[in-house]
Amino acid sequence: MTIRIIKYMPKVTNAKTQYVDIDSNDMLWLQSELIRYLSTMGELDGHRNNDIRQLLKHWWYKRTSMLPKGANGQNSPLTFVSGILNNIMWGTQRNLSTVQMESLEYISSMICQFLEAIEELNITPTNEYNNKFVFQTSLLPIKL
């Protein structure tokens, strides 16, 4: 597992929520990584291993207070990742909030731990791309 650091700058807005600017290359990488999470977990959903199925049932699909509430109530990791991607790629959202960044770090950490645990089972070929990510305030301007 490697750790990727995504630098950001706090953004000045009129919103009550703190938004940030992220480098355009990092934002594209982040979107790709979230798509990878969805596709990997979707692939594992068809697996017959009972431990994998239980983890998906009790973590990936389960609504949790560890994540912020959405328009339709409490989020699960699946709905949170899907919602972020939908809003950024096809909706009106252009930046992440600090609350969303904290939640994405949590999901990244959990998925990386899960993929490391099943690596020995040789179940999915995507483990070589197992990247955890963290967000860090940048001291230099961000390229948008």
What does this structure look like?
The chain has 144 residues and is α+β, with helices and mostly antiparallel strands. The chain has one domain (2-137). The chain is built from four helices and six strands, in the order E-E-H-H-E-E-H-E-H-E. A four-stranded mixed beta sheet has the order 5-2-1-6. It has a two-stranded antiparallel ribbon with strand order 3-4. Helix 1 packs across helix 3. The longest helix has 22 residues, at 24-45. The mean pLDDT is 87.
Question: In angstroms, what separates the terminal alpha carbons?
Answer: 28 Å
Tally of DSSP β-strands: 6
Largest sheet: 4 strands, mixed
Specify the structural class.
alpha+beta
Number of domains: 1
Radius of gyration over all CA atoms, rounded: 16 Å
Largest sheet: spatial strand order: 5-2-1-6
What portion of the residues fall into strands of 2 or more residues? 15-25%
Query: What overall form do the CA principal axes indicate?
Result: globular
The helix content, as a percent range, equals 40-55%
Order of helices and strands: EEHHEEHEHE
**What is the overall number of helices?**
4
Low-confidence stretches: none
Output mean pLDDT: 87
